[in-house]
Amino acid sequence: MTIYALSSGPGTSGIAVIRISGPEASLVIKKLTEKNIPEPRVATLRKINYINTSELIDEAMILWFPGPESYTGEDLAEIHVHGSKTVVEAIHSSISKIKNCRLAEPGEFTKIAFQNGKINLLKAESIGDLIASETEIQRKQAVQIMNGKSAERFNSLREKLLKILSHIEAKIDFPDEDLPSNILKNIKKSSYDVIQNLEKILNDQKIGERIRDGFKIAIVGPPNAGKSSLLNYLANRDAAIVSETAGTTRDVVEVHLNIDGYPVIMSDTAGIRESRNEIERKGIKLSINRAEDADLKLVVIDAKNVEFTDLLLNLLKNDSILVVNKSDLIEGVETTDFKKFDHILISIKNNINLDNLISKIKDHLKNKFISSEDILITRARHRQHLEKCLEHLKSFNEKNEIEDFDKAAEDLRLATRNLGMIVGKVDVEELLGSIFNDFCIGK
Questions:
Q1: From the candidate CATH numbers 3.40.50.620, 1.20.120.430, 1.10.1670.40, 1.10.10.10, the one assigned to the domain spanning 143-204+376-436
Q2: Which of 261, 268, 209, 213 is nearest to 235 (CA)?
Q3: pTM, entire model
Q4: Which of 214, 329, 422, 434 could make an SS bond with 265 (beta carbons 3.0 to 4.6 A apart)?
Q5: Please, what is the end-to-end C-alpha distance for the chain in angstroms?
Q6: Which tens digit of pLDDT belongs to each residue from 211-246?
């Protein structure tokens, strides 16, 4: 089957790029241009006509990439036309009339590239991350993974496990033969080396996932303290409803921000208080759950109504900043209620000290996003497979110690399989749909 799609962004633009990949790609170009395909990798100006008519659609630059030396590994063509919606639709409509041609699914070009061995699974994912990147740090991380160092590291560890497995299977196949003592020592040493490597990789404070998904900041606290006003100030727009009526915010309101190049997901939550209203109580439960999941909590309180309930004190225990709003109302009044906490006095209404609050938030971001060349885990999927690999590897060592080689070998196979799942060295068909569906159509 031959697939086609708009690969540049939708909407009006100077240039639109339509990509075609598959066995009929050359036929598509011949029918659209009524000429032979151009020289490989040479931009060629051609008139694009409706199929079976001489009616002109547009003039276009055509690039021809014969397989296997193409992005997908198949015959691939790119048509660069003027970025009009009607032009793109006319070309799509014409291609759809050719037998065995259909519109591509999200991420299908990259999926085919992976299936044809042009890229590994990590690189495929990093291409998706690069397209979706909104900050400089996200772009750098995606490019770093694309360069292949992560894949090299995982493949190296996997090869060590395969070597150990070959020795263990030799022992199973030839039980009467004694393995040389140096091989037995190497089995133990290699397995412990891999375990140490995995533990080091997993002990990364989830920096890679934070960069990819965004640093989570939850704005929490009692009603009418100014949480929604703070969100609107930081987002520089009216993202949340602000009202003097307590309990206005019932659901979690999220905004995605770029703070000094760091990706941030800022959440405004329902005011935390005792309530008999069932809907508000559900909102409060959501607030507490969001606070527990956050990387940083901004606990906002009213300077004139300081009441440290047990729930509020629990929120202030870890990774939190106490934000005392409406400080203009207590000017000249001494208060020590909040001085034992990491706090800052602000007034959103009078724009007092908000720059200092933003500086405090930036300090937390810089401490969490410690730059590292060893970022290997960027998705929950990677972490899950590494954790399972480590678990099976430790189980292998326990069984190997008591010479239960059959069961030890199975643990080692499972450990190797989980490591291979990260780079796509095993049958990962069940993963492909979920991974490539996150891509845009045309990539």
A1: 1.20.120.430
A2: 268
A3: 0.75
A4: 214
A5: 17
A6: 888 889 988 888 888 888 888 888 877 665 444 444
